[in-house]
Design a protein that fits this description.
The chain is mainly α. The protein contains twelve helices and no strands.
Length: 262
Amino acid sequence: MSSLTLAARNSSTMLRRNLLHARRYPSLTLNLLLTPIMLLLLFVYVFGDTMSAGMGGGADRSAYIAYLVPGLLLMTIGSTTVGTAVSVSNDMTEGIVARFRTMPIHRGSVLAGHVVGSVLQSVASVVLVGAVAAAIGFRSTDATALEWLAAFGLLALFATALTWIAVGMGLVSPNAEAAGNNALPLIFLPLISSTFVPIDAMPGWFQPVAEYQPFTPAVETLRGLLLGTEIGHNGWLAPAWCLALCALGYFWSRSVFDSGRK
């Protein structure tokens, strides 16, 4: 059996293992998924009219729904990948990875199973949050089929990037609790991006914090694809951030995993 065939077969096995774990223990994924859904409902039905009026949309909360949803879809990805960090940390501390190291399997397949499984869970979570958003009034009537495809590609690329970062966080964490805490910035960063309010509405000293981070370019690009707003330089910044985070997370994770720490 060639090395490539062995890697593909072992990665498929590890993927099935991680999906079975997610199905048998859904509480963590559901808890993390509830965060963006609750924020969606809170900001639409409690703050929607006020936020829309403040942004020049009058008293129509539907305008704020359209503004809010693209950012919350990306926040959903960040929330889901926290579970990945916890899952990787559990594998590293409970001894199963030590057992895998003694078996004739491709070493990279362990991480590949976590990454592919997490990306699939992130995509499923985005679809669920998107369905909730559509149920309460979100519409994207002007987006073409090509723009929808580009939006889906951006979401998948962003999920892959954050997943590799989460895997690295899980590998270096001493336990599952620490892994969850280390991955919390993946949830908090959207809160200080352009997800909820435009950057121009923030205090001047805070605007660079919101602008120069990975979530804001991705939010603005996704918003432009789905709603027809101006994308500008965010069109290349968003994939550049994703590729940089993918590379960082991949080499970081492989370095820690191959070193045999823990």
